[in-house]
Amino acid sequence: MKLLLYSHFFAPSIGGVETVVMSLAAGLCKCSSSGSPGEFELTLVTQTPRGSFDDSSLPFPVVRQPGFSSLLTLIRSADVIHVAGAAIFPILLGLVLRKPVVVEHHGFQTICPTGQLFQEPANIPCPGHFMAERYTYCLACAPIPKPLSSARLWLLTFLRRFLCQHVASNITPTQWLDGLLQLPRTETVPHGLAPSPPLVRLPALRPVPVLVFLGRIVTTKGLLILLQAVRLLLQQNRTVELQVVGDGPERASLERLAEECKLATQVHFLGRLPDSQVDDLLATADLLIVPSLGGEVFGMVMAENMLRGIPILASDLGAFVEVLGNAGLTFKTRDPADLARQIVQLLDDPATARRLGLEGHHRVSNSFPLSRMIEGHAQVYRQIAPGGTSR
């Protein structure tokens, strides 16, 4: 089967979509319904420049930034088109050429003009204004309102939704997202991770508990809420150390805020670190905090660290609740007081923290294996391909 996998973003770009697409493409190259590899002849198409990345190291060809005629030829020659994210142009071309098109939803682009389901400049989760036809909220949603830009995004959301209502299959990584999008012919195929033994938990050598934040430093990731919680803990004479791993546009302003709040000795901004250093840091960390405010459809950072056996404390977003199950704790989104209370609860109950770490590892290993993700996609392709088994 000739499979064209279109992902606007791909390596060397770094992000959740890129990680999932890379794992999926590599896994499909080994996939077979008959016991031998080679069932899928996969070509990956992306708009991301190659830079210094070595495409020849991959087990599939990569076509970068194709022109219109090249993309048209690639789509025409494919049996199935998989679009990672609701990218209008490849979906439209696939439908015009009467190809079976699969859209995998990595965001909220079919129900939210910004794709984040997050209200700006209020910086609060969106209750679903677009689907409720409260369009004035959508047109005003931006850090700095720009009427023409907002109107364009609003109109494109209608087009994306229309196109996705006519594709052969939609895929979501969580049932929660499926319920929000309300699109026909939707399959839930959770993201998957390769099997891994739990990270060896080393005894902490420091008397001060270590909390870790791991991710991009942008508003939706909620680092400000975590800083406010650390400040509350200090006011309660509870000393903790927060290690912030990652970078982003809000790093400088949050570093200044930490200094102004006299948190500079407790909060350390480490920037991006090599994987080996991240592993060393997490080996002695007490908790990983995931305080996102919105924009999450699965929570890959959370799942990756559950697999490491680290206790997770996350905001109670729908996707996080589904992925965590009973193998982690949640706090009320945007509530630093509740976050501080939950941190104290886990730090004062190390037995529960250890249990959650072990249960998190088992949950990801059993419920979100990479093999399940690969086979779930393969089954969708087989069903919609010409001559496949219809559902």
Report on this structure.
- This protein has 391 residues and is of the alpha/beta class.
- It folds into two domains: 2-192 and 369-384, Rossmann fold, CATH 3.40.50.2000; 210-367, 3-Layer(aba) Sandwich (Rossmann fold).
- It has 14 helices and 15 strands.
- The protein has helices at 16-29, 68-77, 88-96, 135-139, 147-164, 175-181, 223-235, 251-260, 275-283, 300-307, 318-324, 336-347, 350-367, 370-384, and strands spanning 2-7, 41-46, 62-64, 80-84, 101-104, 118-119, 124-125, 169-172, 186-188, 210-214, 241-245, 267-271, 287-290, 312-315, 329-331.
- The strands form three sheets. Strands 3-2-1-4-5-8-9 form a seven-stranded parallel β-sheet, with helices on both faces.
- The two termini are 18 Å apart.
- The mean pLDDT is 92.
CATH classification class of the largest domain = Alpha Beta
Q: What is the percentage of strand-forming residues?
A: 15-25%
Integer count of domains? 2
Shape: globular
- Count of distinct strands: 15
CATH superfamily of the largest domain: Glycogen Phosphorylase B
Rg, alpha carbons: 22 Å
Under the CATH scheme, the architecture of the largest domain is: 3-Layer(aba) Sandwich
Distance between the termini: 18 Å
The neighbouring-strand order within the major sheet is 3-2-1-4-5-8-9
CATH topology of the largest domain: Rossmann fold
Helix content: 25-40%
- What are the secondary-structure elements, in order, as H or E? EHEEHEHEEEHHEHEEHEHEHEHEHEHHH
Sheet of most strands: 7 strands, parallel
